[in-house]
Fold each of these.
Amino acid sequence: MRRMVNLRSLSFEVPGNKSWILRGCTADIHWFKTSLEFDNGLASWLTTKPRIHDLILTRAKTFSMQPPHLPNLSVVFGTPTTVLSAVSGRPITSVCFGLSGPVMLDLSNLSKSTVCVDHLGVAFDPIPSWEELNCIDFVYRCSVYVPRVQKLSFFATRSGFSPTFYRIVAPLLSRFTALKYLQFVLSESGNTSPIDRVTQLELLQDFHYHNPELRTVTFPGNLTWNIE
């Protein structure tokens, strides 16, 4: 890593916790993704990367760094605990939560970004079916603290969304008065039948009824509709 002095993006995903390897990376990293747990070694390395603006922590259960560190961080993905800890005191514009079961945490840190959060994403496995309800409940609670979100994204990490999920998302949209873009995304391993055109049109009408400001909807398969 010492030779890659012009490296700007780094994805470091290895089994175990080997943050010591990162000590060899002295490049000015802007985008960083890792499966490492958040330990003192990772925290120490991150303090030397003040220009990181995208941080993706796929497995970390905690995050403990003061706002003066990572001062340019604007995009963060991780567990609810990780994301909520990273937001406070930083210019976070985009948050994406990886959910696994109900979230009982206080979400008020979402309102402590130094700028307006305009993108809210949630990644979860829709099976079993109650995970979809957990997701809806979580996003509803988030809306109290980030009502000016312009883009709302749902990511299915394994299986596909149920037909019911799209219907129960619709009333939720009224919570986000500035919403312009709604997105449903499947992982590469997510198998589901395409939504037929008639159903898509019905859903678009339902979405627009609950939020007249909505302008673009993307269904799985990158099927995008623009609403005039």
Amino acid sequence: MILVVGATGLLGGAIVRRLVGHREKVRALVRDSSAAEALREVGVETVSGDLKDPSSLSPACEGVSTLITTANSAGRGGDDNVETVDVEGNRNLIEAASFAGVKHFVFVSAQGEDPASPVPFLRAKGLTSKRLRESGMVYTVLLPDVYMDVWIPLVVLAPVASGRPITIVGEGTHKHYLTAVEDVAGFAVAAVSNDAAHNRDLLIGGPEALSWRDVISTFERLNDESLE
């Protein structure tokens, strides 16, 4: 049994689809009943739970051999924040998985993770990776760069469509190896059955380093228009 935490999100959903396509037995930890129904329709077992509620995680982890988590607090609000979800919630999940005897824990982190980072999200990712490496479970930490299918629409396409100026942080010259959600999902699923991924940190990125200025220039060239 493979447990996916974050199955209703963009990346988690892509992982679930691939696992189902491979005829794996999949369980999803969900909070929303409507989302649970959609998962059940494609053959996924669902269990209700919340990373902030440790008691809900033990039943979810029971009988699980591999756990994949993409869950984070981005875009939630309320009681869901970096501290309650990304730090404490992931700590709860690691402890529940270890207690339940989960053999392999796949954690989707991010490049730049560091327990000492001044950026709360990267600090939380770094703390979770550190705890996972020290847990005694076989682990795989995936370290993708910027998701192009998330950030290019937000940074470039949405402003252009609404007639607003494009806003970039700094000079826009820092290079990223942009990656795709489906590619990261592919790595997560491949890690399940590949011993070479055991106890490894895997960097994931595209073939070419691009800055936001490069991305904007490419958009201008392909659309034959100048963006100011």
Amino acid sequence: MKRSLLIVNADDYAMNEIMSASIRAAFSEGLISSSSCFATSTIFQEEIRKAFEAGIKTFGVHLDLSFGKPVSTAV
């Protein structure tokens, strides 16, 4: 198994359809090794489904306080 010394992250997966498609393409071309996503995006569920279908199984979380809809009730 080849050990990677550098992680190249693409931020903002699921921000919009174009961003998500570009990040999936970058994964498939081997240009990036990591991505973080907007769980508050209105297209989050659909874009994560597309990522899984493309073989991308893990994401970091983009911590966000001002974009999209809340993922939980007010605290």
Amino acid sequence: MIDSKKILTLDSCAKAWENIKPPVRPSKQMLAIYEGYIGDYVSSNKDWGILGSTPELRSLGAKYASSVCCLDLKHEHYYSFSTLCRQHPKESFLQCNWLSTGQAEKFNYVLGDGSTSMVSLHQYDDFLNSIHDLLLPGGYAFLRIQIANTNPFGNPSEVVAWHRANHPSQPIFRTSSFYLQILWQDANLGSVNTEIYCRELLALFEAGIITSDEYQELMSSITPYPISYVEQESFEAFCAPLFTILDVRFPNDFACSNLCPVYALQKK
């Protein structure tokens, strides 16, 4: 049972999620894509595994699955986000590492929204092997990834200028954080170099290019896990030995939605 002393912290976490906007939180069109895949590929009375505790995916599971299991290293988000979703009567939590194989539990479907962006590119083989291992024969994975095929911006000032000209009424994090982060994707790390990212954001603020509020907003994207972007061709090459790519669809209801395809994969 969860420690009662953590209730306030978990409540704060849930409230923070409610204020998060796409692309971190699934947009309406992202959810429509998942539902489209469910309509195309999901049979009734099947078991789902969800990478993490994304409340929107859990609500879909409550609607369509025979059981739902949320898989993550820590349980805090699972309990916190339970207040934000429709829970399946047979929903459970399994503490596990997404990069490890050998879990006893197997699923017909595995869903992950942005999960690939939380591992280094150097860990993609392990990550996809783990997803493959979690699936029953012929099972499906629906994964929203973050891609970095090309970045139309050569420096952070160009990103901010584009935001000012095209999306002045929207939060800068929602329109520009992905484009800024991609500028500091480090090939050696296989992920965004957050040390340089933080330093460059501070330089933008000190130069008067972004405001104090915008600086704080962009800094809120810093996480304890890697932030990575993958070239679409590379992702498909990673998938090829393990999965058949059935479909790939893009949302278009937020500024950087062209970087957020949702893949439908079937286990080979």
